Amino acid sequence: MGVEICVEGLTKSFGHQVIWQDVSLTLPAGEVSVMLGPSGTGKSVFLKTLVGLLRPDRGSVTIAGQDVTKLREHELYEVRKLFGVLFQDGALFGSMHLYDNIAFPLREHTRKPESEIRRIVLEKMDMVGLIGAEEKLPGEISGGMRKRAGLARALVLDPEIILFDEPDSGLDPVRVAYLNQLIVDLNAQIDATFLIVTHDIASARQVPDNIGLLFRRELVMFGPREQLLTSDEPVVRQFLNGRMQGPIGMAEEKDAAQVEQELAQLGEREGRNAKGESGPKAATDTGMTPRLLPSPGLARPPRWEAIAKREAKPEAKAEPEDEAKPAHKTDQREAAVTDI
Ligand SMILES: Nc1ncnc2c1ncn2[C@@H]1O[C@H](COP(=O)(O)OP(=O)(O)OP(=O)(O)O)[C@@H](O)[C@H]1O
Ligand SMILES: [Mg+2]
Fold this sequence. Notes:
This protein has 340 residues and is α/β, with parallel strands linked by helices. It has helices spanning 43-50, 73-79, 98-109, 114-127, 143-155, 173-190, 201-206, 225-229, 234-241, 256-270, 303-312, 330-338; strands at 5-14, 17-27, 32-36, 58-63, 66-67, 83-86, 161-165, 193-197, 210-215, 218-224. The chain has a domain at 5-215: Rossmann fold (3-Layer(aba) Sandwich).
């Protein structure tokens, strides 16, 4: 199960505003990938382009042998059955009870009897902790509950591809922990291909197989979790450590001299030079975070063994060609660092 998504040379603009350009990456079948990036860098636009809701200017999105960007509306309708999507705003129907909202994809895309629909809807509502709220309208519940209703709705068709746009925003920390466990468990059970947009760094560190980072209209990096977590790339380090010092500014416009000064000060503290190159003490904020494991009793996906071996190898970081599917673009990465 799980379907690979292959994105090549994707560029999207609205009018004169280029959102991102020449994005190429492969979301491996059955793996969990996370997309990070400062607010406004086009993460939500990227997800909408993958499902064919937005058309790119150039490039392709290949899923099960079909280029989504070229499909007509009725063909897209078929491909979308592969997807479970949680949009950033939840996108629930305001006049429908939660039960009907969650049942909607089943009624729209399947011919299942109501008794079967009821079983599935209640199972998914239970999974996200919404049992008892079936009769509520979206306007009558909290933002976190709406988010969880959107999650349940995204899962009812047992999708092969799951796209979650900030599933954790608006959730309290305990529920974020439950959500992360739910994602890992779901992946172990149904082996769907996941792409999750999040601003939650702790989740990004523990949950995925792969991490990508969008910044300044480019995909700065995309690759196996350990490659990003141990990266010396200043943008990646700044983002994964959630700090002010570095190329990313409040409005994305930082003066080059200021960045250099900040990195130099940081480097003095951590033993790195102004370009962020490692010194002897540089390991303070890079490094691996233990992976979140499936709940006891759930089988680990077969790929886990290979990943565990790879992560255990200290030299894995330095040799991306050693990785299973490196999608990381060195030239763009360098452009993002020097073009400041
Ligand atoms: N339909 C649209 N028409 C015109 N511009 C749009 C449209 N959708 C998004 N944009 C613009 O594209 C840019 C990227 O938006 P997007 O919502 O993808 O950012 P994001 O990375 O998801 O941000 P956040 O982390 O805040 O959710 C923004 O400047 C936004 O105004
Ligand atoms: Mg967004």
